[in-house]
Amino acid sequence: MWRQVERTLRAGLWTGLRCQSTSSRVFADVPRANTSPHGFNFELTAEQQEFQETARKFAREEVLPAAAEYDRTGEYPVPLIKRAWELGLINTHIPASCGGMGLGIFDSCLITEELAYGCTGIQTAIEANSLGQMPVILAGNEQQQKKYLGRMMEAPLMCAYCVTEPGAGSDVAAIKTRAEKKGNEYVINGQKMWITNGGKANWYFLLARTNPDPKAPAGKAFTGFIVDADSPGIQLGRKVFICMALVLYSLEFRRIGG
After folding, report:
1. Residue 200 has pLDDT above 90, yes or no
2. Could you tell me if 2 and 70 are in contact, meaning their C-beta atoms sit under 8 angstroms apart?
3. What PROSITE patterns does this protein's entry cite (predicted)?
């Protein structure tokens, strides 16, 4: 029995080490001083400590004192988001080719947990940028990445991830928003719901059904689109409060060309 327990613990430890020490291939390879051929050092590197300390100082001195007031008013925390951008605490996954730091998951988590200590609502609004950016980082072409990710390194802009709908939350296959190809463009019609940074975003990543066959497998039924927030036909719907400073919106997309 004890041998079985030991094997289980060793397997779990190895899995944890791999998760912590391995970044996604889409990010820049940054040499780390906390690995060695003789094992794994759990101490943070000097660079990681700097990320953590910067985020902790910002959370304690600027986010935490203001969080209660944002809870009370429900105002979107523009000044704090701008300050976080100035400190380099937003858009951490954007690759170096687009002007970003290209941080891996573990490094970004060090920043995220410190900011969430100050206010989970404000941090969720900040982290939603990474959610909206990730499809572009993973699947966008060079032109799309330069255009939409590059601009976020030049100004404190937000983006949003438009997937969920009134009838489609975790069940992505139930999405009803349609994108029909007409000539050289797609025309999008549908409604999205519970969109973090809705109404505040500079652009949206939107998932829509492009295959009208209801029996089509999910992998061949949907297409991702990048939609500029100032595109004609986007209508901001009702506001839903979750953590006050974290504001979710419904959005209507009517005859959006893309």
Report:
1. yes
2. no
3. ACYL_COA_DH_1
